[in-house]
User: What shape does this take?
Amino acid sequence: MQGDPSKEAEPILSVHDLQAHFRTERHGVKRAVKAVDGISFVVGRGEIYGLAGESSSGKTTLVKTIAGAVRPPLEVVGGRVDFAFLPGYGGLHCAPEAEVARIRWRHLSYIMQGSMNVLNPVRRLRSAFVDFAYPHIGESRRQFEQEVVAHLARLKLDPSVLEAYPHELSGGMRQRATIALATICRPDVILADEPTTALDVVVQKEVLALISAIRREIGSSVLLVSHDLGVHAHVTDRLGIMYAGRLIEEAATLEIFRHPLHPYARHLISSLPRIGDDVPRKALDGTPPNLADPPTGCRFHPRCPLAMEICRHEVPAMRENAPGHRVACFAVNRSGGA
Ligand SMILES: Nc1ncnc2c1ncn2[C@@H]1O[C@H](COP(=O)(O)OP(=O)(O)OP(=O)(O)O)[C@@H](O)[C@H]1O
Assistant: This one.
């Protein structure tokens, strides 16, 4: 590895106290959906960091904000996002357009939910590669074409896919093509939002193996969003669990599977099906909160078996309970995580 070792140890992405709300108005009544509310974490170089949490916990909004895809009614109301390759702006949403164009695909790529969102349905795949990647590669068109074909082969795609329209490919092939597009410029960071959700189990495994291989080969860091803990168990190094717009626990993925601390994380892990174990799983009481009017204090307190008086009034901070294991829970942090 080349370069300044202190720089290599710096995180590639740091998110600090990020708050992104949807501000809406209906019949003259204004409301703010607090989809991302005070989230802080870092992603190291070459690391695959997972984000888990149930539907509507704010995962997609967090990734969109990090990607700079902030359009009304979404607004960043506080905090910052720092990339090692984009110092000083506090996030892509604050950077000038020229900087954003310089960074997209080359330093940062974003695999959105549903591969059709990136691929233009009325243009052949070749156009997508030329439009997105060619300006960054800085080679002759012929060399560029050769590089694209070699990269497709790495992802087990035949060069003929370049002549195809997106709807002519299977879901798995489309997702591979999207990953090829997102990785051809060897970006420092890949944001992947539910990259396997619409795929069958076999293709899902292939796509996850691909993401691991890409990380190994080109050294990219990956922020991978999935509601499916099985996906995280397969590929992520560290895992952050979100609940109602906040990060409530973070640790090495294996550590969370073995020793979940937050009552919500414990519930998620204990609900996972295990072969041969037919003990009925207990559902969590209550429903996820309305993020336009979330509970005061800890947002999980109305459903929490350990809730205490303080949980109703004060927001628990993320604290390191054991080395590398952070959790936001008064009950757990007071008892030392037992
Ligand atoms: N355009 C919008 N206007 C208002 N509220 C929105 C909008 N988009 C999302 N939300 C709300 O923001 C909250 C977080 O949604 P988000 O899609 O980020 O969650 P998620 O964890 O990614 O869920 P899923 O896994 O279902 O995509 C939800 O309460 C959702 O209803």
